[in-house]
Design goal:
The structure holds two protein chains of two kinds. By secondary structure, chain A is an all-alpha fold. In chain A, helix 3 (82-114) crosses helix 9, helix 6 runs antiparallel to helix 8 (190-227) and helix 7 crosses helix 8. Chain A has helices spanning 35-57, 67-79, 82-114, 116-129, 134-145, 149-173, 177-186, 190-227, 233-242, 246-274. Chain A has two domains: 36-65; 82-278, MetI-like (MetI-like fold, Orthogonal Bundle). Chain B folds into two domains: 1-74 and 154-226, 3-Layer(aba) Sandwich (Rossmann fold), CATH 3.40.50.300; 81-151, no CATH class. The longest helix of chain B has 28 residues, at 232-259. Chain B is globular. The chains are: A mainly alpha, B alpha/beta. Chain A binds chain B through residues 176, 178-179, 181-189, 192, 196-197, 200, 203, 277-278, 280-285, and chain B through 51, 53, 71, 73, 75-77, 79-90, 98-99, 102-104, 130-132, 136, 139, 143, 146-147, 150, 152, 163.
Amino acid sequence: MLNVHDGRPGVTGGLPVPGAPLRAPRPWIAWGRYRGVLLSAASLLIAFAIWQVLSTFIFNPFLIPPPLEVIRTAIPMVMSGEIFADVAISMTRVLVGFVSGSLIGIVLGVLLGRIRILHDLLDPILELLRYLSPTAMIPIAVIWFGIGEMSKYFLIFWGTFFIVLVNTTAGVWRAPIARQRAAECLGANRLEIFVMVVIPSAVPYIVTGMRVAMASSFMSIIPAEILAADSGIGYLLQKSSLLLQTNRIFVALLTICILGFVVDRMFRFLVERVLARYMSFVSVT
Amino acid sequence: MRVSNLRKTYDGAHQPYVALDGVDVEITDGEFFCLLGPSGCGKSTLLNILAGFEPATSGSVTSDGVAVTGAGRDRVMFFQDAGSALFPWLTVEENVRFGLRVRGVPRRGWTSIIDTYLRMVDLDPHRNKFPAQLSGGMRQRLQIARALAVEPDILLMDEPFGALDALTRRRMHSVLLAIWQRTGKTVVFVTHDIAEAILLADRIGMMSVGPRSTIAKIFEVGLSRPRDLTDQKVAHLFHEIEAMLEPDVVRSEEHTAAAE
């Protein structure tokens, strides 16, 4: 804990009392609660400054354009709305694939976690299929679905589905036996135990799976769009590369960073708002 | 509850492991009965069978003359790890309400039942907190309230206070005894702590160490409550049980070491 003094006078009216213990020296700025934000901002500013200096004086500014140059390129792209159009297209793809992958992953994961025979039957297949990353599936997805939206939905779905499935199964599997038995004693039937105890117990695992899947969706949408799309951030990267527009490549890369960060924060915010009560793990031992 | 000639075996690698063999005991209504024994003597297994969580391999368990085949409305189990036994996403009040809902208690009675039992365990001021915000002792008191609210006849308690510090534990003993005396429930209490057994129980069933454990001897405590460990008679009983238990504790340790 950071030692912060609010500077208000104490009971003595601020007069020094002989023999009173020495106060901790007052920090010269009262930055207590802003500490994290300030340090993050400082970290970014310093990084940008170093990047600016290195790009201007040491590296070839064509290969690594300095940040001010990147911003200059970004302004017209932002003003014309060009970048937002690409962001919207990529985000829609991520969202459709992520939501459908999560839903089906949760449903199937819950069944697999509960029905032993289904788990034993499907586990070997899933155990093999999960090594096929979305990127590995791009070529066949293009043949199956063309370069339209469907192929991107499919690829994001593919990446999300396995992660959410595996986590959901683990969560259902690990619902404490004592909790299920406690519910059983109180009079809950099998369905009630399942719906009112097992599934809520699995929520932290499901949410963790979805967060990881969200990050992985951001990883896989880019190669999917580079190889099989005519719009979106990935396509912007690919097009700029072909035209040797390194400035625009850096704008696209920065956009991905910001987008990923913002979406993850929004996800966390939503979880804290909606699912907070399900997220605590309590254990005495 | 009546247990006769109970036997429980588990499938082993080469031959079935006989955990319990020839357990015979009758627990009378309103009695406070302790199952005492070193770890690995099958006392939790016996309790799980009484609760109906696990079936007996042979022999019979009846409650009020009816054979136990699963969890029943007359019995509620109380677990050591309150953290996993409670519903962490429900508040104190909602944890108690859960039982009323799944038991089909009419909705208009809920408020007064919840109030009664939360007051009984002094959790009334904390009714809107979540289990994670409670201390270990408070969580166990919540388990008591949740169990009592569905009005069972029998409380089955599996080393309920084993994870608490000594002072909280003593307080829980008096809370439990007060509630037991007030409500007249039957309590079957599993422990490996001789002192705890003597302080609480009417009768103590001493279990022999496994395999083939059974209730080797039943002690009638027959002392007035509240009991004090420094009391002559209590101390005498303590030493008597300790002396009987010692060879078993040594065997239990050897058994565990051999298994590892």
